[in-house]
Amino acid sequence: MSLPSTILGYPRIGRKRELKKAVESYWAGGIDADGLAAAEAELRRANLARLVELGLGADDSSLPENSSLYDQVLDVTHLLGAAPERFAGREGLDLYFALARGDSSVAPLEMTKWFDTNYHYLVPEIGPDTPISFANRDVVDRFTQAKGWGYTTRPVIVGPVTYLVLSKPAGENGSPLDRLDDVVAAYGELLTALAEAGAQWVQFDEPALVSDNLTVPRTEIAHLVEQVWTGLAARENRPNILLAAPYGDSSAVFPALVRTGVEAIGVDLDRGTLPTPESLANEGVSPSDLAGRTLVAGVVDGRNIWATDLSAAAEKLEAARGLGADVLVGTATSLQHVPHDTALETWDDPALNENLHAWLAFADQKVGEVVLLDRGIRTGLDSIRAELDANAAVLAQRAATEGVSVPAVRERVAALTGADRTRGDYAERRAAQAARLGLPDLPTTSIGSFPQTAEVRQARAAHARGDIDNAAYEARMKEEIERTIRLQEELDVDVLVHGEAERNDMVQYFAELFDGFAVTKHGWVQSYGSRCTRPSILWGDVAKSREMTVPWWSYAQSLTDRPVKGMLTGPVTIIAWSFVRRDIPLSEVADQIALALRDEVAALEEAGAAVIQVDEPALRELLPLDQSRHADYLAWSVGAFNAATAGVEPATQIHTHLCYSEFGQIIDAIAALDADVTSIEAARSRMEVLPDLKEHGFAQGVGPGVWDIHSPRVPSVEELTSLLELAVESVDPDLLWVNPDCGLKTRGYEETIASLTNLVAAAKAVRATI
Ligand code: MET
Ligand SMILES: [Zn+2]
C-alpha cells in the first residue's frame, strides 16, 4: 500500500492545551491514571478527527501518531524500559513521570534542547547495565485504539541511532552506542508487534543525520543509520517504513538512506536540499534504485509560522521527481513546534488582524497546504492555479505592507560600520569602571529576575484583562521592585537588579514594546513536558519607538546608592525565541534588533546606569547544525551583540549572561562579544568550564554560577566557598564575580533568601583570603 502525502507530526498539547491541563491535574492528584488515560485518548481522537477534516485520509496511514504524555525521547526510554538504576521500584506512569520530573527521592533525567529548536527532550542515560528490551506497548496500543475509532495511523518514533547519539553514558565507562544491537533488537520486536496489530506504515525519525553538533561525527551517524536500517528493513513481517531525516540538510547522507532499502524516505527541503543526480551517481545511486520507492519531500516548513510560498514549493516537488522516486508532499519536520490554528487568534491591532491571518500558517493551515500541493502534483498544477495565484497575491501584498520595510531602519542598518561594533581598549575600560563603581573583590550580583510570585502574575493578568488600570499596575510593580532592592541591600549584595517583576517573559516583554512584532493570545507551543510558550511573531522591521526599561530602572536606582543593572535581552535570544520573518536574512533582522537595543542601552546610560546587562542565553542554541554555516552565524550573532552594546562610554560596564556551559564550539565567539563581565552556568559541572576559558586566554570579567537555580536546594556556605576556591584557581580574582547560574524567577522567596545569604557569606569568606 503506497503512502499518501502527509505531515511528519502534529502538535500534541491540544488546541486548548488539554494535555497540559490533564497531565498537571494528574500530578496534582486531581485525576487518577484512568482519568489521565481517558483525557489523553480523547485529545488524540479529537486531533485525528481534525486532521481528517483538514483533508488527510482516515485509513491510508497519512495520519501521524506522534502523541506523547511528555516527550518523544522519553517515550523511547519507556518503550525500551531503559530507566537508570536509581528509578528501581517504580513502574508505569509513576516511572514515566519520575524520569521526567523526579520525585521526592530521585532526580529526573537531564533535559536539553532538541537540535536547534527551543523544544527540550529528556536525555537518556545508557550504560553497559541499562536494561533494554521491548518493554512497553503504548505505541502499539495507541495504534489499536485509533483503529477501533476508524483511523489507520502511522506511528512516529525516534530512530535508534538518534536515540543513542542523544543519550549520555550512565557511569564512567563506554558509550551509549555500545548498546546499539540491543536497542535495534527491541525495535525489531516493535516492528513485528505493529505489523501484527495491522499497521501499514511506521515512521522513524533520525534527525541526528543532519547535525554536525553532536558528539558523534556525522559520517559515523550516517554509517550507523545505513547499517541499522538495512538490517531492520530486511526483517519479514513488518510494516512499511518511512525513514525521515528532518531538521536540516540530508543531501550528503541521502545515498545512505537509499541504500537501507526502506520503502520511503523523508527529507527536509525547507532547511535542506536534495542531492543532485550527479552526486548520487558518484555514490553509485541511480534513478532505478529509487524507482518504486517514495520520497516524502518536506516542502512545508514545520517550525515557523509563515504561509508557504506554494509556487516555490511546487518547483521543489518538480525537481525532486528528477531523482526517480515517487514524490509526495510532506512537512520538513513534525508540526510540534508550531501552534494549532490561526483561526483561534485575533489581534487587537486592526491592521495586524486584517493582514496576519493571510500571512500565517499554523499547524492546521500547513496541513491544508500539504493537501493542496498534493492535489497539485496528482492532478496537475493547473487544477490548483487559483490557489497558487491567491497565495502569490498574499505574498506580494505582504511585501508591500507598511512596517514590513521601513526605509529609516534599512538605512540605519546599512550604515553600520566596524567602529559601531567596537568598544575601546579593555584595560582602559576596566580601569574606568573600577574607578566609577568602587566594588570589592569578588563582587556579588544576580542574573536579573527575582521570584515571580503568584501575586505578581495575578496583577499582570488583571492588568491585561483591564481589571486594574495602568497606575494601579505600575504601583504594584514598584512595590515589588522596592521589596527586591531592600532585600538585596539587607543581604549586602554589591550590584543589584530590579528583579524583572514587570516582565511576563524576557523576550515577549520586548516584543510587545518594539515595532515589528505581534504577540499571540493562543499561539502556544510545547517547550517541554506540560510547559508551553507563546513565541512572538517578528513580521516587520524592528525599531524602538516607545519608552521601555528606563522608568523601571530609574525607580529601582532611586531607592539605593548601590549600582542597579540595566537589564536587556540580546538580539540572538529575541530571534531564537520568536517566530521570525524569512523574507530578509537573519543577520539583518539581528542588526535591526541590535540597533533598537542600542537605543535602549543609550537611554539607560543617559539615565545614569553604570552597569547594563544584555542577556544572550540562546547564542549556543541557534548555532546551525551544519558545520559549514557556523562561521557565518557566529560572525553575525556576535556582530549584532557588539552593535547593541558598543556605543557606551568606557566607564559603563557591559555584562552578558549565557546560561549553559557547553562552550566548546563557541568559545571564541563568547570572547568576541567583548562584554566586560560574562556570567555562565557552572554550578552543576563544578566550574568545569573555567580552565577551558583560561586556556583560551579569556581575560575579562567572568561570573561562573555557583548556585544551581534549577533545583530547589539551598547550597551551603561551605559548598559555595569550595566552588569559589576552585574558581580562583583558573580566574584572576580581580576578574571573578559571584552569582547564581541564572535568573530566580522560578524560585520561591524562602530559598532565594537563604541561598543568597550563603552566597554573600561565601564571597566574603573567599574575599578575605586573597
Ligand atoms: C534564561 S536567562 C534569564 C536571564 C534573565 N535576566 C533572568 O534573570 O531571568
Ligand atoms: Zn539564564
Automatic annotation (TrEMBL):
Binding locations of L-homocysteine: I447, G448, S449, D615
One protein family per Pfam: Meth_synt_2
Q: Keywords assigned by UniProt?
A: Amino-acid biosynthesis, Metal-binding, Methionine biosynthesis, Methyltransferase, Repeat, Transferase, Zinc
Cite the binding residues for Zn(2+): H657, C659, E681, C742
Domain Cobalamin-independent methionine synthase MetE N-terminal: residue ranges:
5-320
BP GO annotations: methionine biosynthetic process; methylation
Per the record, the domain of life is Bacteria
**Coiled-coil boundaries:** none
Give this protein's Gene Ontology molecular function annotations: 5-methyltetrahydropteroyltriglutamate-homocysteine S-methyltransferase activity; zinc ion binding
Q: What is its EC number?
A: 2.1.1.14
| Required co-factors | Zn(2+)
Please give the name of this protein.
5-methyltetrahydropteroyltriglutamate--homocysteine S-methyltransferase
Q: Which organism is it from?
A: Flaviflexus salsibiostraticola
